[in-house]
Design a protein that fits this description.
19% helix; 4 strands
Length: 63
């Protein structure tokens, strides 16, 4: 995370494959991005829907 970037936890998704946290991230630009932290990796998306679906897929639960 770079200086000036804020992250807000939106939800946590749990499943048989572990836990994923979904964040809204903003660097002051016009559009936020959405990040999924799971298994020590961070995946970045332009839409919350895509991030939420991917969070479910990563942990093995339907979202």
């Amino acid at each position: 995370m770079t200086s000036g970037t804020s992250r807000t936890l939106l939800t946590t998704v749990e499943g048989p494959g572990g836990t994923a946290q979904l964040y809204e991230s903003s660097d002051g630009g016009p559009q936020p991005t959405y990040e999924v932290d799971c298994g020590g990796q961070t995946h970045t998306f332009k839409s919350m829907g895509e991030a939420y679906i991917t969070a479910g897929e990563l942990v093995g639960t339907k979202t």
